[in-house]
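Why do we care about 3D structure at all? Because function follows from shape, and shape follows, mostly, from sequence. That is the central idea of this module. The next example makes it concrete: a single protein chain, its amino acid sequence, and then its structure expressed as tokens.
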Amino acid sequence: MPAPSRIDQIAERVERLLVRHEEVQRTNALLQDQVNALTRERDALKSRLAAARTRLDALLEQLPADPSQDASTPR
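And the structure:
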């Protein structure tokens, strides 16, 4: 079998590069999907955190400002 010509070698390398490029594009698309999902999850968690902070702030507002008031209040 004769040695492949320079053109054949280049063509083979180009084919391998094209296959690799497609693999990288697929991997990139999967990673982008993961980033999007994690971004949505982060945003949802930030929203829940903000809501929890609001609820805590509302509860803190209900506490007496002066600790002595708490001691004088019968239970």
